[in-house]
Amino acid sequence: MSDPLDTVFAAIADPTRRAILSMLLEDDMAVTDVAEPFEMSLAAISKHLAILTRAGLISQERRGRVKWCKLEPDALRDASIWMQSFGQFEAVNLDAFERFLAAELGHDG
């Protein structure tokens, strides 16, 4: 995926990765602490973290012997702007739409 927006959306498509991002909203975390609540291996968590890192959603750094993860919230900015562009449309009221169609088509509801 060469488009950064595609990479971000692919990364956040997975519920485990979304949960990791939510956890990192609170504070930086050691990789072992990130892995703790999940019932999967540390290697599997590391793969999720690598995907989030490639998407620019998190950064990882070694502090002593411990690898830490940090949320990079600016990486979601383009995705957020793209999604907000759809906010210009009002939600469809299906009951009102059904009444409109019935009136237009000359049918009783």
Structure in words:
The chain is of the alpha+beta class and 109 residues long. The chain has six helices and three strands. It has helices spanning 4-12, 15-26, 31-35, 42-54, 77-84, 94-105; strands at residues 29-30, 58-63, 66-71. The model has no long low-confidence stretch (mean pLDDT 88).
Q: What's the total number of strands?
A: 3
Approximate helicity band: 40-55%
What proportion strand? 5-15%
Q: Largest beta sheet: what is the strand line-up?
A: 1-3-2
Which runs of at least 5 residues are low in confidence (pLDDT < 50)? Answer: none
H-E string: HHEHHEEHH
Q: What's the arrangement of secondary structure elements?
A:
Blueprint: H1 4-12, H2 15-26, E1 29-30, H3 31-35, H4 42-54, E2 58-63, E3 66-71, H5 77-84, H6 94-105
Antiparallel strand pairs: 1-3, 2-3
Helix pairs in contact: 1-4
Using brief descriptors, characterize the structure shown:
109 residues, alpha+beta, three-stranded antiparallel β-sheet, 3 strands
Question: Nutshell version of this structure?
Answer:
This protein has helices at 4-12, 15-26, 31-35, 42-54, 77-84, 94-105, and strands spanning 29-30, 58-63, 66-71.
